[in-house]
């Protein structure tokens, strides 16, 4: 299957590729992965699964994007409130908004995982989980090295 044909004109295709590459399991660059199909080979996706998975990712991204913006706004508000020594009630209200936002984001991520699970086979899911775990372990190790130096 030609990965470029699947992804041509698809912003979510590029986003999905970046997401899979961020797992750190199948290739060092987006260019080489898109040319060689490493991300599909790594999970063993069938041609039918690719557009379905791209749709699931695109839906997640569309839903989360405005929430990430709102989270940045809330963080700026909290920072300003702390600097200006705002009343505790004002900070509590901002924190309540933050907690509501986190809950909305959690639900969207649960929907994404359910959608992902509907598309992937158990073996593909296991590969993805292991790759994510390895990626996070690698990131933790890098952070420890940065702190040590």
Write the layout of secondary structure elements.
Layout (H helix, E strand, L loop, with lengths): L2 H5 L3 H12 L7 H7 L1 H6 L5 H35 L4 H32 L2 H27 L1
Helix pairs in contact: 2-5, 5-6
Structural features:
149 residues, mainly alpha, 2 domains, 7 helices, 83% helix, flat, disordered N terminus
Description:
The chain has helices spanning 3-7, 11-22, 30-36, 38-43, 49-83, 88-119, 122-148. It is flat. By secondary structure, it is an all-alpha fold. The model is unreliable at 1-36 (pLDDT under 50). The chain has 7 helices and no strands. The N and C termini lie far apart (46 Å). It folds into 2 domains: 1-45, no CATH class; 48-120.
Concise synopsis of the structure shown:
This protein has 149 residues and is mainly α. It has helices spanning 3-7, 11-22, 30-36, 38-43, 49-83, 88-119, 122-148.
Q: Give the quaternary arrangement of the chains.
A: single chain
SSE pattern, N- to C-terminal: HHHHHHH
Strand content: under 5%
Which class best fits the helix and strand makeup?
mainly alpha
Count of DSSP-assigned helices: 7
Distance between the termini: 46 Å
Total DSSP E strands: 0
Shape: flat
Q: What is the averaged pLDDT score?
A: 79
Summed up, the domain count is 2
Report helical residue fraction: over 70%
Radius of gyration over all CA atoms, rounded = 19 Å
Low-confidence stretches: 1-36
Major β-sheet annotation = none
């Amino acid at each position: 299957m030609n990965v470029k044909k699947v992804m041509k004109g698809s912003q979510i295709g590029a986003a999905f590729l970046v997401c899979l590459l961020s797992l750190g399991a199948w290739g060092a660059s987006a260019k080489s992965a898109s040319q060689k199909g490493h991300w599909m080979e790594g999970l063993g996706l069938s041609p039918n699964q690719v557009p379905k998975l791209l749709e699931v990712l695109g839906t997640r991204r569309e839903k989360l994007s405005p929430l990430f913006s709102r989270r940045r706004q809330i963080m700026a508000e909290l920072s300003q409130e702390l600097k200006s020594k705002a009343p505790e009630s004002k900070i509590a209200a901002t924190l309540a908004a933050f907690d509501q936002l986190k809950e909305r984001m959690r639900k969207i991520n649960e929907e994404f995982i359910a959608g992902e699970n509907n598309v992937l086979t158990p073996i593909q899911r296991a590969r993805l989980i292991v790759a994510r775990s390895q990626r996070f372990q690698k990131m933790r190790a890098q952070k420890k090295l940065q702190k040590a130096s």
